[in-house]
Amino acid sequence: RLTALLERIMVSTEDKDKYMMLFHAPAQVTLAGHDGAQAEYMGVYELNGEVVHDGPLYVKSSGTEGYLYRNNNPKPDRLGKWTVTLSRESVDDNTGYFLSAEAAELPSKPGLVWQYRVPDWHDEPGITCT
């Protein structure tokens, strides 16, 4: 039904894809499993209805400010990977401290491996996003 509605209001194909992704995105996700120096990034992230970098934007619901977004930086190999950061400016700059190890349509993709940066990227198999 959403596809038909978007076609009737003449939304471009690119915009229709963005709205469909937003429509299928869970209302909230929980990032958990890291208790080290970057534990402040863990928590519940809520969909805010905004599309950035061709994906939905999630905002941390409590505690430290945080954002979860789909990276659109093709170098160094970050295109389509989910990124976690503490500021909105970092979202705009495509930077952050946690990154999914592979591109995914949604951050809650089962089995998605996450990485953290201190100072280089390292796999963190204990992190989950559900």
Number of helices: 3
Number of strands: 9
The global form is globular
Helicity, as a percent range: 10-25%
Tell me the distance between the termini: 27 Å
> What is the quaternary state of this protein?
single chain
Give the SSE order as H and E letters.
HHEEEEEHEEEE
Could you give a short account of the major beta sheet? 9 strands, antiparallel
- The value of Rg in angstroms is 15 Å
Placed side by side, the strands forming the largest sheet appear as 8-7-6-5-4-3-2-1-9
Structural class by sheet pairing and helices:
alpha+beta
Query: Which regions contain 5 or more consecutive residues with pLDDT less than 50?
Result: none
Mean pLDDT: 82
Question: Beta fraction of the residues?
Answer: 25-35%
General description of the model:
The structure is a single chain. The chain is an alpha+beta fold and 130 residues long. The mean pLDDT is 82. It has three helices and nine strands; from the N terminus they run ααβββββαββββ. The chain has helices at residues 2-8, 13-24, 88-93; strands at residues 28-32, 43-52, 55-60, 67-70, 82-85, 98-100, 114-117, 121-124, 128-129. The protein has a nine-stranded antiparallel β-sheet.
